[in-house]
Amino acid sequence: VQLVESGGDLVQAGGSLRLSCVASGSTFSIDYMAWYRQAPGKQRELVARISSGGSTNYADSVKGRFTISRDNAKNTVYLQMNRLEPEDTAHYYCNAGTTNYYYYWGQGTLVTVSS
User: Fold this and answer.
1) For position 59, what pLDDT does the model report?
2) How far apart are the first and last CA of the chain?
3) Which candidate, 7, 10, 73, places its Cα nearest to that of 35?
4) What whole-number distance in Å separates Cα of residue 12 and Cα of residue 55?
5) DSSP reduced 3-state for 87
6) What per-residue confidence (pLDDT) applies to 115?
7) Are the CB atoms for 13 and 103 separated by under 8 Å?
8) Is the C or the N end of the chain the one with fewer CB within 10 Å?
9) Euclidean distance between CA atoms 44 and 40, whole angstroms
10) What is the longest distance spanned by two Cα atoms in the chain?
11) Contact at 8 Å (CB) between 94 and 70?
12) Are 23 and 76 in contact (CB under 8 A)?
């Protein structure tokens, strides 16, 4: 499975961005998909996760502002980010887990939120 993210950009605080992650390869084996982020000097953290059935969970810091969704026909997962804050500045990584317990990562896309 290969994952390619896009959509990262520089945005002002209060603005919005939508990240996309397209999966290719053995996509039939994908179970859940997720977005993680890593800010400079910090550990990578889970932002949002969506199961194959559409169940979602979010980090407390983004609840009510971010929405994860997936289009299985396009093998794509999205992260709609609203009311962005400078603390959201990070590299955002797409992650996929398969039914046979393999895990894959994308190369990351940079989101910078200016105050």
Assistant:
1) 98
2) 37
3) 7
4) 30
5) helix
6) 93
7) no
8) C
9) 10
10) 43
11) no
12) yes
State the amino acid at position 4 in one-letter form: V
Residue closest to 38 by CA, chosen among 110, 114, 115: 110
CA distances from 108 to 18, 36, 54, 103, 115 (A): 14, 9, 23, 15, 23
**Which pLDDT value is given to residue 85?**
98
pLDDT per position as a tens digit, 54-107: 999 999 999 999 999 999 899 999 999 999 999 999 999 999 999 989 999 999
Burial 23-56 (b: 16+ CB within 10 A, else e): beeeeeebebbbbbbeeeeeeeeebbbbeeeeee
Q: Is 41 left (phi over 0), alpha (psi -120 to 50) or beta?
A: left
Distance between CA atoms of residues 19 and 38, nearest Å: 15
Which residues have C-beta within 8 Å of that of residue 63, sequence separation ≥ 6? none
Residues in the chain: 115
Q: Exposed, middle or buried by CB within 10 Å (0-12, 13-18, 19+), for 20?
A: middle
